[in-house]
Amino acid sequence: MARKVSAWVGWIWFAGLIMLSSGVFNLLSGIYAVGARDVGVVEVGTQILLLDVNSWGWVHIVIGALLILVALCLLAGQAWARIAAVVVVGLNMVTQFVYLPLTPWWSIVVIALDMVVLWALIVHGEEAEKVS
Questions:
Q1: Residue 30: closest CA among 53, 55, 51, 57
Q2: Residues 95-127: pLDDT tens digits?
Q3: 8, 76, 89, 100: least CB-packed within 10 angstroms?
């Protein structure tokens, strides 16, 4: 007997696909940052903030790989992946917040998408577990 699937399960698929694409972009930007060997200089009021782009590139590579791995597990229907996704997406939001002075528009878009992904995972995640 087939179970009735709620339309809200689509939000979990949306979350997984956004995580997958965000992970790919993080991975690519991290690889670029590691190869660039630049230092970001940002003026904050009367102070200057120096950001080692190379180090943050490695952070983006690790977060990107985690996003891809957890997104694939989430799309495969693994129950534990929902909790792991909340943690990894939260970490991605923090890294984007730190990277905000260097790439403000990109970071704002990613933070906004991460908020929607968190909403989908937290509010509608139980319905996806009922289907599995």
A1: 57
A2: 998 878 778 899 999 999 999 999 999 887 666
A3: 76
Q: Which amino acid is at 4?
A: K
Residues 20, 75: contact at Cβ < 8 Å? yes
Cβ atoms within 10 Å of 105's Cβ, excluding its own: 8
- Tell me the pTM: 0.82
Strand partners, 49: 42
| Distance separating alpha carbons of residues 108 and 118, to the nearest angstrom | 15
Contact (Cβ atoms closer than 8 angstroms) between residue 116 and residue 124: no
Which residue from 14, 24, 29, 6 is spatially nearest to 113, judged by alpha carbons?
14
Instruction: Give the separation between CA 56 and CA 49, rounded to whole angstroms.
Output: 14
Taking a C-beta distance cutoff of 8 angstroms, is the pair 70, 19 a contact? yes
Query: Rounded to the nearest 5°, which phi and psi values hold at 121?
Result: -70, -40
Amino acid at 101: P
Give the count of alpha carbons within 13 A of 101, CB side only.
Answer: 16
